[in-house]
């Protein structure tokens, strides 16, 4: 244990010490080497400090984490990048012999061009950084990414987050997509959560009896918690059925599907034993008898008008000496025949 810790900090301390010693004894060393070593000493010092700081931060994260919810590797990588970026920035400013403002002005154009070229990668990376800082989930949590995936978080990277679903399917999601969606964490702040199933029963069964039967079904379930106790709430009163929400508490998301299956199986068993009638739907034709009679009267009137019109045409043709033509096909009514 002690040897692994010492080996972890040996190289950073060695590089940092070398840089400090070169800076202290540069006047004695430069005559023998024939060139200035101040810049090299500053570079080694900056890199050593950055490396040592990142190792200290990683050590603190590893020993301060919880076994159930460890901190993602993204935290350590992010801090290491920040330390080394600061070291390189300070080294560049020292080598170019310019201050902070000049170094920023010289690098702004390059950063702008690179940012536009890799904007999608930058979006995923920045989203990963935001998710890592806010911490909506950690490794080992069971989460539901709205309209994307549901599973256990196994890795949080710079650009992607990897999930393992209940079907043992490996899902890789870009962090930028996750950041724009609703996230439901079933493991935080506690792994205990409440689930429910909807049951529709006939209105013939009273609410009091229905609640008693549904609670009786949960008494035999083994995968749900007995405390807090399950309960039943009325969700909707319809014309034919009443919808109930049977609510119960679970301790592990892995058992969600099995718990629902167990509860619904016992509900079916209890309802069959109690001979509860299944909901039935009555279909009624829209309209009253008066509307039907008025429709029949209208049809009869239209038939009379058609016959009168045909008679008038026949008399008109006879008066002009034309022989009336026999209709060999079914007559069709035109809109102008009723004018």
Automatic annotation (TrEMBL):
Where does this protein come from, organism-wise? Pseudooceanicola nitratireducens
List keywords of the entry alphabetically.
Answer: Cell inner membrane, Cell membrane, Ion channel, Ion transport, Membrane, Transmembrane, Transmembrane helix, Transport
- Places the protein is found: Cell inner membrane; Cell membrane
Q: Which SUPFAM superfamilies match?
A: Mechanosensitive channel protein MscS (YggB), C-terminal domain (SSF82689), Sm-like ribonucleoproteins (SSF50182)
Q: Where is this region: Disordered?
A: 312-339
Q: Does the keyword Transferase apply?
A: no
Q: Does the keyword Transmembrane apply?
A: yes
Query: Pfam families in the record, alphabetically?
Result: MS_channel_2nd (PF00924)
Query: At the top level of its lineage, which domain of life is listed?
Result: Bacteria
Q: Where are the transmembrane segments?
A: 9-27, 33-53, 74-93, 99-118
Listed name of the protein: Small-conductance mechanosensitive channel
Membrane-topology annotation of the record: Multi-pass membrane protein
The entry assigns this protein to a family as follows:
Belongs to the MscS (TC 1.A.23) family.
Oligomeric state and interaction partners are given as: Homoheptamer.
* Domain Mechanosensitive ion channel MscS residue range list: 120-187
Enumerate the GO terms in the molecular function aspect: mechanosensitive monoatomic ion channel activity
Output compositional bias ranges, type Basic and acidic residues.
Answer: 314-325
